[in-house]
Amino acid sequence: MSIIAERTLTALARLLSRSEVAHSTEMKEALRDAKLQEQYRAHELERVTAAAERYRVPIADRIVLDLGCNDGALTVGIPQLGAREVIGVDVDARAIELAVRRGAPVRFLASSVDRIPLPDASIDTAISYDVFEHVAHPEMLARELARVVRKDGAVLIGTWSWCHPFAPHLWAVMPVPWAHFLVSERTLLAACRRVYHSPWYVPNRYDFDASGQRRPDKYTETALSRDYLNQYRIRDFERAFAAAGWSIETYPLPFGSLRWTAPLLSVRPLTDWLSGYVWFVLRRGTAN
């Protein structure tokens, strides 16, 4: 039965591979070219800025922390928004080295998974974009944010629910919505491997090693890594943030082409399944 499911999923992936169900044309191009990906990532700052303005998270004249800044592609644009000081933090020391080389007026720091290398109450505003779905213990990190962010400060977190149509981050090879709920993880990864070796599959830059050679094999595991994706749903994030002492505002957004579902996002059983992205704003006191 599993081989039938694997082949069916592979056929669906082929059918949808040329569509924009999972990736827009812009995203596909960015995945194949390092410079285009850099530009795409930098443009994501506009999305963060819009969310900060919409949800009343101040950046101008504030000391701003970009938590999970990676190589700083987004972080280096924050000083232009009027921030008084910008600090980028990431657990990837190599990414921090690359960020420092950008020469921007930003202080970049390498951190551990359970400690933000900053003094207590030293930050006005913290931003964490596309990070928390990768955090193994969100409550622990939320407590660290509560330590470093001042009492009148705020935190803006952008992340995904595990019920997102493409939550496993496999969309390059598996553009089938909710595939991780349709089959077992073993079957899902086996189908991804089959796609990767199919003649119709178009490789992206992550399919090649540092020397430019195509990686001979991928997706050989039998289960999705919990170290890479925590599989949290919206309510799981909310519980973790509340346990860390935060008051929470939750703002789910509809998925891409399913904008018509926006009114349904207020129906809690549907929120996880129909949201394409979720913004959380953490503050002290009572949420609005």
Kindly describe this structure.
- It is a single chain.
- The protein starts with a helix and ends in a 5-residue tail after the last strand.
- The radius of gyration is 20 Å and the shape is globular.
- The protein has 2 domains: 2-32 and 168-207; 40-163 and 229-283, Rossmann fold (3-Layer(aba) Sandwich), CATH 3.40.50.
- It contains 9 helices and 7 strands.
- 33% of the residues lie in helices and 17% in strands.
- The chain is an alpha/beta fold.
- The protein has a 7-stranded mixed β-sheet with strand order 3-2-1-4-5-7-6, sandwiched between helices.
- It has helices at 2-16, 25-32, 34-54, 93-100, 138-148, 179-182, 185-196, 234-243, 268-274, and strands at residues 63-67, 85-90, 107-110, 123-129, 149-159, 247-254, 275-283.
- The longest helix has 21 residues, at 34-54.
- α2 crosses α3 (34-54).
CATH class of the largest domain: Alpha Beta
CATH T-level topology of the largest domain: Rossmann fold
Derived structural class: alpha/beta
Number of domains: 2
Mean pLDDT: 93
What does the main sheet amount to? 7 strands, mixed
Number of contiguous helices: 9
Q: Give me the CATH superfamily of the largest domain.
A: Vaccinia Virus protein VP39
Please report which band the strand proportion falls in: under 5%, 5-15%, 15-25%, 25-35%, 35-45% or over 45%. Answer: 15-25%
User: What Rg, in angstroms, do the CA atoms define?
Assistant: 20 Å
